[in-house]
Every structure is written in structure tokens, then in C-alpha cells.
Amino acid sequence: DADVTQTPRNRITKTGKRIMLECSQTKGHDRMYWYRQDPGLGLRLIYYSFDVKDINKGEISDGYSVSRQAQAKFSLSLESAIPNQTALYFCATSVTGQDGYTFGSGTRLTVV
Amino acid sequence: RKEVEQDPGPFNVPEGATVAFNCTYSNSASQSFFWYRQDCRKEPKLLMSVYSSGNEDGRFTAQLNRASQYISLLIRDSKLSDSATYLCVVNMDGDMRFGAGTRLTVKP
Questions:
Q1: Parallel, antiparallel, or unpaired: how do β-strands A102-103 and A10-13 relate?
Q2: Interface contact flag, A103 B45, Cβ < 8 Å
Q3: Any bridge partners for residue B44, and if so which?
Q4: In a structure prediction context, what are the per-residue pLDDT tens digits for chain B, which is 108 residues long?
Q5: pLDDT of residue A1
Q6: CB 3.0–4.6 Å: which of A17, A50, B24, B46 could bond B70 by disulfide?
Q7: What is the DSSP letter of B26?
Q8: Interface residue B40 vs chain A (CB under 8 A)
């Protein structure tokens, strides 16, 4: 089993729909992150969490929300999906934030 | 100016060639630096951390120049399997900032 698991792997949804992307990890890391990747822009941080009671906005949090249900689970929601949220979404974990990140295999989201 | 800037490439090199990528960063107070490798449609994977004194891992050498605010990655004796996008990552004020990546294609 992967250390960081994202579901679904691929999703096509319609504009205005609510969608949730899920991430779970078996690494025991406290820190979890959601990023989106667009061609030519690199990964951009959406939200991050340092423990279950800690939620922080990243660079591009508008239009997204998150929930840290447990140390191992961190989900990302799009309340009302729009086409410019079409992207590749990655969840990541780390121990201290100064170390390297472990990424999930990504969710490819298409909003039509 | 982008916080982390990389030449997007693509770099097309023959097998066995030596290739080098540079990355510049904007925050002089940045403390930690990394190179990640990302295969097409896959997740980024940590290739190596970059230390002040420079470090080597097999065919890969990473260097940091704090005065000029850039890091580099050198790949010697390129293999077909080195074809990927290489992401420069800089920790700025506790946040990881990713470059957009440099694409490398190694050809037979």
C-alpha cells in the first residue's frame, strides 16, 4: 500500500457541483498539505494542517475548504466547482516542514 | 519576479551526456533546498536535498550558491530513465515553494 493515498485518481464533474478529494497517510506525519499543479505554474499550496486542530490557508485557498478528520486523513472540498479548478491535485505529508515531502499519486480533476 | 525560477527546457540530450539545471530563488533567508523528480502524470518524488557544502548521490550532484541565490543539479552519464521533469523546491519562511520544473529528455 502507498504511504499517501489519494482518492479518486481521476474525476470529471460539472460546473457548480460539490466535490471532495480525499487523502490518507500511513506515515504517521503530523503535517499534511494540499497542492494543485497547472502546466507552467508549478505546484501551488491550497491549504495545510500541522495537526488535527490546525488548519491554515495557503497561497490559493479561495473556492476550496478542507477538513482534517484525523492525523491520517485530510480532505479537500470544492464547494461549487468551476472550470478553472481543472488541475492535478496532490496531497503531501512531512515531519517538520523542513524535510522533504511525501506526495500522494494525485487526483486529476476536470470541471466541465 | 517568481519566487523560484527554473528554465522550463526542454533539454534534449543523448545518452551518456552531462546536463546541468539551474534554479534561482528570491528569498535570501531561505533555509532548505531540494530537487524533486516528476515523471509524466505522476507525483513528485524527492531526488535529493541540497546542502551548503554541496552534495553528491551517484551520478547526481547538487550545489547551493547562497550569495547568488541559486541552486544547481548536475546529472552525469545520462540514462534514458533520467527523462523526467526536475523541480526545484525552496523552503521560504516555513513554506515550500516549487519551481515550475525543467523537462529533460534523454535520447538513445
A1: unpaired
A2: yes
A3: B38
A4: 678 999 888 999 999 999 999 999 998 888 899 999 999 989 999 999 998 888 999 999 999 999 999 999 999 999 999 999 999 999 887 788 999 999 999 999
A5: 62
A6: B24
A7: S
A8: no
Q: What gap in Å lies between CA A66 and CA B108, rounded to an integer?
A: 46
Q: For position A39, what pLDDT does the model report?
A: 85
State the pLDDT at residue B1. Answer: 67
CA-nearest residue to B48 within chain A is A100
B34 touching chain A per CB within 8 A:
yes
- Interchain pair B91, A40: CB under 8 A: no
Cβ–Cβ below 8 Å for B42 and A101 = no
How far apart CA B72 and CA B57 sit, in angstroms, is 14
Q: What is the DSSP string of A52-78?
A: TTEEEE-TT-TTEEEEEEETTEEEEEE
- Chain A CB within 8 Å of residue B87 CB: yes
End-to-end CA distance of chain B: 37
Distance CA A94, CA A88 (A): 20
Question: CA A1 → CA A27, A104, B65, distances in Å?
Answer: 11, 11, 39
**What is the chain B residue with the closest CA to A97?**
B94
Interface test with B, best of A37, A60, A108 (most B CBs within 10 A): A37
